[in-house]
Amino acid sequence: MKLISRLKTISKYEKYALITIVIAIILRFALTSVYAVSGDACWHLSAARFMAENLEIPLFDGVGRDEPFWPPPLFHFIAAAFYLVFGETGLKLVSPLFGSLTLIVAYFLFRKMLDEKQSFYAIFFLSFIPLYIDYNVLGYVESVLTFLFAAGIYLALEKRFFLAGAATGLAMLTKNNGIFLIPVLAYIAWKKSGKNGLLKNLFFVAIMPGIIASPWLLRNWLSMGNPIWPFMNNIFHGMEMHSYLDFAAENIISKGTYLALYLGFFGVPDGNYNALFFANLPNFALLLGIYIMATIIFLIPLFFGLGKGKSRMIWYVLLASFVPLFFLYVSNVGAFVSRMLMPSFLALAFFYGIGMGRIAGKPAGKIFFILLIIISAGFIGTEAFKFRLARQSWDFYQQDFEWVKANTQESDLIMAGGQCMSFYLGRLQVWPKQENIGKARYAFVNQDFAVDRLRAKTPEGVLGSIRKKSLVYRNQDSKTEIYSLRD
């Protein structure tokens, strides 16, 4: 009864915000029920399952990549705990749960700095921009990372600097990008601490996070010769296998980099424009034109919110802290950087709220917001279509995966390319290399594996050796062959 009474007394825009958050949370869990694990999420969730089943952290254990397991492990610990409680379904619950918590914490954060109308528009932006929908559903670490950014900033504004520093340390144990929360919290500590408390609070937010993250950084340094392996290996000179050794400054000025960045913000996987052609859509040129126009209209309020004003410097510091990450990642790794910037979208949402608040006060403000709602509905429909298409693509191979689970031992190593094979086969894997033929018990071969065509393809020399072994399974429809490597 108290809750109902409270709901009756809250203002109009607080109700709008509450409704938006509820819809956004329902959307995230609904999409989770239909999406198929793919991409890097396969590797992360395979590692989490390995941790749950073996009570140890993998290193060279074949959980999906032909490289050591190097990411900070907090996301994987959480996913492992969910797996122990809920089984396979639990692995898919972590991202929507923390994505939902981020929306709740972000709203309280915005209410500390914006009025109720602006806060509603800010949370509207976070709820429906496709990048946030994607990575609040997919099994990537950014969902937990962004939650910790929001929580850390909120705690710092509450002058609870010890807890804010702890959140930053946990962020660094979730992804190396967590270090970019430190400048924001240091700025807040400088603005909100008295002379006597400044050094103590700076210690909490700038030094303590490194202490919390140090065991993992030390582990990677001892195991791979580089605390942040595989990144910036041209500086640390660690293990060279699959590490990033080059520094391609030309990527910074490439038009393709910024196109990929933009496309990634609006739901194109990894910002890769080739993904636009994965489905054979009728009237593709018209649909693409509508999509581009919709994204431009959706971003218009952001530009009305930029400028000087109360409390904005915190968010400029957050954006500025991600500038070096952007340039380092683009030059050292590649152009597909959109999701790396997810925590900085808290700042974009803040400015969006201010901008949309200004637009709403204009004569055509209500009409413009109705247009934003229609565009957001279009984003949701596109996301649902994308997840459904991906699910159908993976389901095409389900019979092959089930054969492996039913006809091999859990301890059998499977030779297979692609970082999703370990996840879907439920077995540890070795990469299709000549020297691995003696290690694996079976080989999973598909030279036309549509969902991971490049990485799943077996090199011709290795394929010749495999095909001298006993063929134990063939699916004419999917073109999958499985060979026993120990006759």
Structure commentary:
With 487 residues, the protein is mostly helical. The chain is 60% helix and 4% strand. A 5-stranded mixed beta sheet has the order 2-1-3-5-4, covered by helices on one side. β1, α20 and β2 form a beta-alpha-beta unit. It is globular, with a radius of gyration of 24 Å. The chain starts with a helix and ends with a strand. The relative contact order is 0.10. The mean pLDDT is 91.
The general outline is globular
| Spatial arrangement of strands, main beta sheet | 2-1-3-5-4
Estimate the helix proportion, in percent.
55-70%
**C-alpha Rg, in Å?**
24 Å
Q: What share of residues are in beta strands?
A: under 5%
Distance between the termini: 70 Å
What structural class do helix, strand and pairing data support?
mainly alpha
What is the residue-mean pLDDT, rounded to a whole number?
Answer: 91
Topology, element by element:
Layout: H1 2-9, H2 12-32, H3 40-54, H4 74-86, H5 88-91, H6 94-111, H7 116-128, H8 130-135, H9 142-157, H10 161-172, H11 182-192, H12 198-224, H13 233-236, H14 255-265, H15 284-305, H16 312-332, H17 345-360, H18 365-395, H19 398-407, E1 414-415, H20 421-425, E2 429-430, E3 442-445, H21 460-466, E4 470-475, E5 480-484
Helix pairs in contact: 2-6, 2-7, 3-4, 6-7, 6-9, 7-17, 9-10, 9-11, 10-12, 11-12, 11-16, 15-17, 16-17, 17-18
